[in-house]
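Re: NAP structure - here you go.
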Amino acid sequence: MLPLQGRVALVTGAGRGIGRAIALSLARHGADIAVNYASNDKAAEEVRDEIRAMGRRAEIFKCNIADDTAVHAMGETIKKVFPAIDILVNNAGITRDKTFMKMTHVEWDEVVGVNLKGPVQMTHLYLPQMVERGWGRVINITSVIGQMGNFGQANYAAAKGGLDAFTKSVAREVARKGVTVNCVAPGFIRTDMTAGVPEKALEHIKTITPMGRMGEAEEIAEVVSFLASPSASFVTGQEIGVNGGLYM
Ligand code: NAP
């Protein structure tokens, strides 16, 4: 029997990049998947079809996770298909890079809205039923930038650092209820998010990463699947770095 057989996972931002890899990995390990995304219907449909081809159930749910009203509406729609969510992966994230002194309130709010408020709203929606059922996994995708800080990413670093602190607090609150709450903090991973980074900057990142390369989305996904599995039953409140040694 596969380790996640009979479990249902909801992955935000699962149409592309790391979220896509996480959804596929969880499905390979036996879970049925609710695929959330923001706007790219085609990408989400492809993920859904790939999961169904593995013999698992999969449905797509379009929703901006920064919008509280939309999140609650999505929750109602999901409930009709998947009455309970066992594994919540808060993966969706965006960047709006600019040095802090030039950063606008809008750029700050957008990044904090998707990267911090979004996971908080999603967790608020699904944590009570996990506690009630006595089993659950919340896995938040943070970033090495939240651990180290970065030039031009004050909004993103603050949101990811905040998400880590949120994780640890909630992990303590539900530790005796059968629910674990953890983070996975990727280093620099090859996705659309990093595709726009200039070649020179990417070369620098490889130079300062002890393993001398960027990571692949699948290398994040496998750690998420481990945290979701029964093998990680005594792991909670952790931020696991998957960064090629960039931050130790
Ligand atoms: P990506 O390739 O840009 O994909 C982002 C995904 O999130 C897309 O599926 C997108 O939906 C979805 N999304 C964006 N805003 C959303 C919203 N408001 N509501 C719902 N879904 C939304 O990003 P990625 O590189 O895979 O990053 C995934 C996560 O890893 C993020 O939290 C990011 O901060 C974190 N991370 C990435 C790296 C890296 O090097 N790539 C490093 C550290 C941490 P659509 O497809 O519909 O647009």
